[in-house]
Description:
Structural class: alpha/beta
Amino acid sequence: MTAPQFRPLKFGVTRVSLRDGTPxxxxxxxxxxxxxxxxxxxxxxxxxxxxxxxxxxxxxxxKNADGTLGNWKHITYAQAWQTARSIAQSVLDRGLSxxxxxxxxxxxxxxxxxxxxxxxxxxxxxxxxxxxxxxxxVDYDKLKHxxxxxxxxxxxxxxxxxxxxxxxxxxxxxxxxxxEGQVPGRTVTAFDSLCATAxxxxxxxxxxxxxxxxxxxxxFTSGSTKMPKAVINTNRLWCANQQQMAQSMPVLAERELxxxxxxxxxxxxxxxxxxxxxxxxxxxLYIDDGKPTPALMxxxxxxxxxxxxTVYFNVPTGFEAIAHAMQTDDQLRKTLLSRVQMFFYAGAAxxxxxxxxxxxxxxxxxxxxxxxxxxxxxTESGPFGIFVTNPFVxxxxxxxxxxxxxxxxxxxxGKTEVRxxxxxxxxxxxxxxxxxxxxxxxxxxxxxxxxxxxxDETDVHLGLKFDGRIAEDFKLATGTFVSVGPLRAxxxxxxxxxxxxxxxxxxxxKEVGAMIFPTPAVRALSGLPADAPLxxxxxSAPVLAKFQDVVNTLAQTATGSANRIARLCLLSExxxxxxxxxxxxxxxxxxxxxxHRAGTVAxxxxxxxxxxxxxx
Length: 616
């Protein structure tokens, strides 16, 4: 059989060194050394502003009078640099600092980008905050927690959609800056006034005073059973990680970088990885107001029909929608595949059928496959940590450490935890000394909680593959360990394209169960009207029959109680951000779902839940 043909892509790290430590401990690092990197990201912004001032830095579609999205509004590097300097002066005039930073409530926007850059120049941390904390939440508990933790001196919002949240959480003595609209009952500052402030030599002095240890931003974790933690992101972390990415992914510097990206900047993937990449390489980022949801995916597809990225990043749900659309959308295939050198996913597992569908469309359109890059990282690692080494990637593969990052592989309870040490690792959590101490081991390695194993035990240079989250794993009443990550991926694969995610149950019980969050595809499967309640869809005979087949198939391949799904139910109530069951990036939090749906878990295992499916 002939090996598939891939569009050429160079991999930066293909050789690693492995050494033994104390029993049950090994250390892994790239043979390639980390090269020099700038002291601050603003050095790169200033460089591009001087060397290609008229190139577009970022663009976003403007809203028409009827609320639809129209033409692209562009900001050049020269405009970004000058406006950010004005904003930096405004920040300095207010005496803001790490103790009184800038909190950004809003989604990705040109104004958000400029405010962030202004803060970086001034040396004042900014805090991009999940918009659903303001727009979706009912109790605002997480937003209140963010404000209590960082004690901001200024809060920014794009428009009056955030007025209710501001009124409920922001004290009257805290300045609110807004682009358009008002907050009833309080005075607000117009964002334009920050941009109109004349920069003085104090701006240059402030930027010169920043260095590797200066805090650039606080990024909050998604939180599980506890409230989110504020991860300290220094200039060193951000710049080192961008250099690491450049060495692991040489494609980033091979041609002028163009991104089309929706990933939220309050997450490290969108806000550090992609935003930082744009500045570091002097690229262009088109802000995508779409999202991989039924209501907004059309906007992402529209943008990808028009703008051809050179590399493209998304989460598995986004790639699933793109794979489906490319089967019939000629213009999407033509534009998206015209110059993209690499796809990249993170955030969750990508099911093999999605890869296969993407590859089929690529071979049909351009006669070759596009490499699907992936790896492992987290907010605390900047996020980039581990990256694949060759184009023949399979679901679950991670790869090898990026230059300058040392991995510590620690055997524990039958699994191997990966830990990180390097210049891209956070110094800790803001105003949380106990949590910071607990996060690092005695050698200063950050304890990720991620389990890994070798792709091929006979060839360490192929690197690692994901083996689940250690904290998610549990024991049955028999003492048998259930490895959640691999079993969850197996369920999603068996039920593709009808399973969005699966949460495993059975802690201290006799058997493993599964609660399924379905995809919108189940509606077509049911044969019911498009507006039928989801509960009715999931109770329909065709849907139950399909999932009965899934349960039966899984049972046939099970080798014991630890990987046999003995009972399964379908959830009509989607996961909620308020309860921490899901992030706004779409990642499911297993522990939070189990905690908040304890009644459903009990009923599933007691047999009192309707439509429980069991192997036949």
